[in-house]
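FORM 7B: Structural annotation worksheet

SECTION A. Query
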Amino acid sequence: MTPLLRAEDLRVAFPARNRVTEAVRGVNFEIGREKVGLVGESGSGKSTIGRALLRLTPGIVSARRLEFAGTDLLRASEADMRRLRGRRISMILQDPRFSLNPVMTVGRQVAETWRAHFQGTDSEARQHARAMLESCGLRDWSRAAARAHRARKAPEGAR
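SECTION B. Predicted structure
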């Protein structure tokens, strides 16, 4: 079976005034259609690899091969990348300060992201958000969202 995502000799470098820092050197992987997470020590290049795949890094990205679903990510147009990002490939950062808005429920944020990429009603966006969260094992998310909503509306002393 052909991998969904393939990187061969992936490299990311950041040029500075007097030198070039190679942040990622010679990374190779193949990923099928499963949902995966990239795990490693702090500073090991996880976020840099994710941003390189999405072409959202200010660094210089090179690879012998960098493909997603048959698309050459190094040669894809910016319009092609916009169609891929968020719909087919995305990245969730481990630091919640950069991932989620603390004053919105997770379900609402997922629905808002779906609406940014697809045409549909608010109801359809909520249905898709529910399905996406349930696919990640978050089955009681609507109850948690309702509890959070009630807590926000409760008077200060009642919380």
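SECTION C. Observations
Strands lie at 5-15, 20-31, 60-62, 65-68, 71-72. The chain has a mean pLDDT of 84.

SECTION D. Sign-off
Analyst initials: ____
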